[in-house]
Design brief:
Blueprint: H1 4-35, H2 46-66, H3 74-94, H4 101-119, H5 134-147
Helix pairs in contact: 1-2, 1-3, 1-4, 2-3, 3-4
């Protein structure tokens, strides 16, 4: 059971968490474009501009949510703050050309790890894992088929 102040923090932090998940998803999409050699993976891709805007919105929300951080919510806030910093780093690297996938992927993974950890500290936050999804199984099959 969480107290009323922590519940207020959860309500304030949910949009921030969702915004950060959105930025992570957009960056992952950009990396897919780059990995497939798409001509759309450019440093001026509209997805990058949108991600920067959403990240700025999340950072503003974090400032507002920080006022309500309780002792119970402190680990969550720390993970969310770390994720925001890692996404900022990933976005900065995504703006470089040619796109260095690993340079973006490392902070993106760090951000996703921290979002996952944040989700496990308080109720009301969820990360969707695609590790067991059909697309994950398909990519494993393709990899296995190409090694034969």
């Amino acid at each position: 059971m969480i107290d009323d102040r922590t519940t207020a923090y959860v309500i304030a932090a949910q949009p921030v968490f969702e915004d950060l998940r959105q930025v992570a998803a957009q960056l992952a999409g950009l990396l897919v474009l780059a990995a497939t050699g798409s001509k759309d993976s450019t440093p001026d891709h509209p997805m990058l501009a949108a991600s920067r805007q959403v990240l700025a919105q999340a950072q503003e929300g974090m400032t507002r949510a920080a006022a309500g951080v309780t002792a119970h919510a402190r680990p969550h806030y720390a993970h969310v703050a770390h994720a925001a910093g890692a996404l900022e780093h990933a976005l900065a690297r995504a703006g470089a050309w040619p796109l260095a996938v690993d340079a973006v992927l490392l902070p993106l993974r760090d951000a996703c790890d921290h979002l996952q950890q944040a989700a496990s500290t308080l109720p009301g936050f969820a990360m969707v894992s695609f590790e067991q999804a059909c697309c994950a199984v398909r990519s494993v099959r393709l990899k296995a088929d190409t090694t034969v």
